[in-house]
Amino acid sequence: MRSRLSMTASALCASSLLLLTACGGWQGFEPGGPEGDEIRLLQQPWEDLIVENEIVRQVLEDNGYRVSVQEVALPYGAQALADGGLDAYLGHWWPTQESVFEEHLEAGDVEVTGTLLTGTTYGPAVPRYVADEHGVLSMADLAGNRELFDGELIGIEAGTSGNQHILDAIESDAYGLGGWELVQSSSAAMLTELERRADAADPVVILGWRPHWMNDAWDLVYLQDPRGEWPGAGEIRVLTREGFGDDAPNVERFLSQMEVDAATVSEWTAQISREKVPVETVARDWIERNTHRVDAWLEGVETADGQPAEPLGARLPPLSQ
Description:
By secondary structure, the protein is α/β, with parallel strands linked by helices. The chain is built from 14 helices and 9 strands.
């Protein structure tokens, strides 16, 4: 039983993120502060981050700022943030991404500005039917069930920290995983494969996370890690480049006051990838329904021209469907 997700090197190159490909080189961004009032956000193709960046864009642009969003593979995005070529990142899963950002955080090139969400989970998982029927509850249970899974773990985008942790486990033969294969493709492809296998009640082990709608669609069991090989549960933090608070103190204050909850994030991910609602609509509708939260994020924040920021949600006209 071979996965339909197996990809050639050329296919991976074709699907790599903007500005950096698996076959090409780092094209980079201009270092230093933004031009005028422009704010430059880092993005990967993850539904929650896409919505959060769009909410930030709509709120800040309504207050006179210019916002651009750059989609870059995680390691190179981290470098761009450290070099000053990008300003902020709302997708720092901690401690999962520790290896990607540790050097930059210790050097002070990147700073923690706020915490968006606490209580996250990120790691290898199996559907409940696999755990119940085959007793797969721990990373330690995988090696003895190699044939069941065809020695294969279904990952997400190449270059992500979660994929790298699995690759490290395979290389070090942690839990007897030496010789296993990590299938790297995309989050969407992983979910498609999970759905295909689950519909047929076939065994599968994926790289999963919550909050995300996948946990509502399928009863997933996140595998125990008795040896502490995996970073474990944590939080999603906001990172900014060094000096951003001096260059854009009001935007830094806004970002530091942003908070979301797990139910909201799961709803966003479902709207984007299951219901196919445009991200602009998801963000605008959420703002309109949550003006009290937007007000809290804007407390003490000034517009680009130095005026007190007004609540955005109360002034937005409804989007036409």
